[in-house]
Amino acid sequence: DKETHYSFVVMGAAGDLAKKKTFPSLFQLHLGRLLPGSMKIIGVDDPKFHTDVTSVSDFWEKRLREYLEKQKGWVNEDVESFKQRLHFVHVQLDQPETMSALDRRLQELAEGRAKEHRVFYLALPPFLFAQAVEHLRERCWSKTGWNRVVVEKPFGKNGAEAAALSNSLKKYLDEKEIFRMDHYLAKTLVLNLLTLRFANRELGHLFHCHHVANVRITFKEAIGVQGRAGYFDGYGIIRDIMQNHLMQVLTLVAMEAPATLEAEDVRDEKVKVLKQIRPIAPRDCVIGQYDGYQADPDIQKINLKQGYASRCPTFAVAVLYLDNERWSGVPFIMKAGKGLEVHQTIVRIQFKKAPPSSLFGEQPQNELVIRIQPNEAIYYKMLAKMPGLTQQARDVEQTVLDLDLKKRFELRRTPEAYEKLIHDVIQGESHNFVRRDELEQAWRIFDPLLTTLEKEEKREPERYTLGSRGPLKADMLIDRMGFRRYTVT
Ligand code: BG6
Q1: Are the CB atoms for 188 and 414 separated by under 8 Å?
Q2: Which of 4, 15, 67, 421 is 20 to 30 A from 348, alpha carbon to alpha carbon?
């Protein structure tokens, strides 16, 4: 459409998130010809914090080049055409007139087209969200098309802070103009959860307490906090990973079928199941911290300032229960940790054991496993008769029914979660963004636990060796929940 112009404005463009995630994803969408032809990308930042970036060519050379050239599948022309889209503008949030100048620049770039749509992607620290949104709304709002604002966690440190943030955004924006991003929602196998359960109807029936003994949702990272200690120490693994990313995964595993696949129906159903989750009991939680965390120079500074050694958990296990018929009595075991033995995010649905009196006697439990990353796969650990002449039907072994996405779909690459989400924002597709009430419910589940750990108990995390499975106490808690480890993977 020749009369429509698109502006994609990245606020905080010279910062870390923008160069590592936002711009590489925009570049991939550009390579895939998935951005509107007329779309301009405008990097915006405050010269006070980035004195080395004064022009678009600085921005390219000093921030983007290294990250974009690392991407695969481009030729020189692609880089040139991407640069054609690219602009850089200085803005200072404490000087609103600089926002008016941004607005004039956006209008110029639209070259008189009748309709102008604007995305504002806030790659900013959350304490700036409200101020940024206020000025954007007053001075930079397109009057001829839609405006959309993308924000990313952390949304506060607890429910009250998240609500205050939501309220200040609500003063200026409609809920449908706000896109709260949780990039886990756009991972290929997270997107596939509703399909797995509700397109394969017979399989969907297995997701029920009649069959399931326990569900484990595990996030493991082999690296520590590296360079992000200043942010991380204020939040900890429960807020950084569990309350948002893993809660979203849990919700999709546990929810009922939505009335339709429309965004509002799906999100209504998610909120319904979230409301049925009990707040986590502190006794159902083990926290840990890897050895060496205290040696990080940023943590030493924090310790010195606060006068005690950081109790920030880099590891946690928590058990959640749902009060509904489908999941009555089934523990959902969530585990997240940094500095562990592997890099992996996995959902394991472990089925009930057959009684010893059953036809085949005692056997390992079957499992449906969804490996979100790396190497996306779904597999079902099941029993089969050993092949061979002499064996009897009862000579069974646990084996694997396996869907390896790369092999099956001959994928060259699966798109990065950020790519899908940015594309969704431009399309106005809000399925995979978090609605305000989902966020409130997720905090309700975690708030009491965090208050007990941090304010009442001041609980010391268990130490664990960098590169290990995490603290022993965590495995003990998981074993108490009836989870059994088997060797077949
Ligand atoms: C981010 C967390 O939201 O997710 C990081 O802040 C974490 O601490 C990251 O490393 C993990 O995302 P992914 O996509 O690499 O699993």
Answers
A1: yes
A2: 421
Question: What distance in Å separates the CA atoms of residue 198 and residue 267, rounded to the nearest whole number?
Answer: 16
Estimate to the nearest angstrom the gap between the alpha carbon of 348 and the chain centroid.
18
Please check the confidence at residue 385 and state whether its pLDDT lies above 50: yes
> What is the atom index within ligand 1 of the atom nearest the CA of 232?
8
Cβ–Cβ under 8 Å, residues 3 and 113:
yes
Q: What percent of the chain has pLDDT over 90?
A: 82
Could you give the CA distance from residue 427 to residue 146 in angstroms, rounded to a whole number? 11
pLDDT-based confidence at residue 488 (cuts at 50, 70, 90): very low
Q: Rounded to the nearest whole angstrom, what is the distance from the C-alpha of residue 348 to the centroid of ligand 1?
A: 20
Q: Report the SS3 class of residue 122.
A: strand
For strands 396-404 and 377-385, give the pairing. antiparallel
User: Which DSSP helix (H) or strand (E) runs through 215?
Assistant: strand 212-220
Rounded distance from Cα 239 to ligand 1 centre (Å): 12
Closest CA to 35 of 387, 423, 301: 423
- Residues 6+ away with beta carbon under 8 Å from 279: 444, 445, 446, 447, 448, 449
Query: How far apart are the CA of 149 and the centre of ligand 1, in A?
Result: 21
Binding site membership of 240 for ligand 1 (Cβ less than 6 Å): yes
Q: Is 70 helix (H, G, I), strand (E, B) or coil?
A: coil
Probe residue for ligand 1, chosen from 245, 293, 312 as the CB with the greatest number of ligand atoms within 8 Å: 245
The pair of structure tokens assigned to 229 is 């200690």
Which are the catalytic amino acids? 245
Q: In this structure, which residue's CA is closest to atom 13 in ligand 1?
A: 184
DSSP labels, 282-349: GGGEEEEEETTGGGSHHHHHHHHHHTS-----SEEEEEE-B-STTTTT--EEEEEESSBS--EEEEEE
- Reduced to 3 states (helix: H, G, I; strand: E, B; else coil), residue 209 is coil
